[in-house]
Specification:
2 copies of one chain form a homodimer. Chain A contains 7 helices and 5 strands; from the N terminus they run H-H-H-H-E-E-H-H-E-E-E-H. By secondary structure, chain A is of the alpha+beta class. In chain A, strands 1-2 form a two-stranded antiparallel ribbon. The N and C termini of chain A lie far apart (39 Å). Chains A and B meet through helix 1, helix 2, helix 3, helix 6 and strand 3 of A and helix 1, helix 2, helix 3, helix 6 and strand 3 of B. Strand 4 of chain A pairs antiparallel with strand 4 of chain B, so a sheet runs across the interface.
Chain lengths: 159, 159
């Protein structure tokens, strides 16, 4: 189940999709963020065949999102731990979850992100770092730079 | 290029992936957020065949992410406009873009989100709505509710 590659595109969104590779990859990243590290844990959570899981974990290691670590020598056993690069996908995962809770499941999450200090549940929201304003509301527009696609340059204000 | 369905899963992340359907869907949503509405605009931007594009636009309409609107009667011409449900994917798109710029392209975006009032470029960051703290840093942990998968309940603190 390989996807068409977007490597030829310059768009960072397309590049991210290309790196993460397949839907299942993001669910494995989700599970790794949730603290799972071992093959049998991922298998139980995902309910997929050992062959598929082996291939998907290897892909994520090849892309530098997970790191294989030997935790036992006899018999040899590896676990899979998120790299910084992989851990940085948390905003993507949280944004996907927030949309799904709002528009599909209508329920709170089964696994919840909490503040270490207060234990309060986190409510993820995307804001502008400079102003703190929420990006899911009004008050923002897109503008095209010189390297944007011509069809977008004709539609959008210029940077 | 259909994906295995995740409908049977209760996870909101999986549900979102199920709704968005394929990588290409998210790139079409990106283009719609960038202001494109017409078939030939999407085709120029995406560089895919008319057949593929027709099918993908129809899927997004069926899922309530885009809405088809007639803008000309003779000859009949439709355009495709984001619904509220579709527009709500902006945090997902921006989170994907932020990751790609940081870890893959290393470049600024070709199309940039700007503040309406100041014209300043937006730097999207996911924070906790309650505290304003960034979710890509330390200071957070996941906890499992009673409905979480047993393998996660055994790994995580309980809610």
């Amino acid at each position: 189940m390989r996807h068409k590659s977007f490597e030829e595109m310059t768009c960072a969104i397309a590049q991210t999709l290309n790196q993460v590779g397949e839907w299942w990859s993001l669910l494995l990243i989700r599970d790794a963020l949730h603290g799972l590290t071992r093959f049998d844990e991922f298998q139980q959570s995902m309910g997929i065949s050992p062959n598929s899981l082996t291939r998907r974990l290897s892909e994520l290691c090849d892309r530098g999102l997970l790191e294989r670590r030997r935790y036992q020598e006899r018999p040899p056993r590896d676990e899979y731990v998120l790299t910084d690069r992989g851990r940085d996908l948390r905003p993507v995962i949280e944004a996907l979850g927030a949309w799904g809770r709002r528009h599909v499941t209508g329920k709170k999450a089964a696994v919840r992100l909490r503040d270490d200090e207060t234990g309060a549940e986190v409510d993820p929201v995307l804001v502008d770092r400079h102003t703190g304003r929420r990006l899911d509301g009004e008050g923002f527009h897109y503008a095209a730079t010189r390297v944007a696609h011509p069809v977008k340059r004709s539609r959008l204000p210029k940077v």
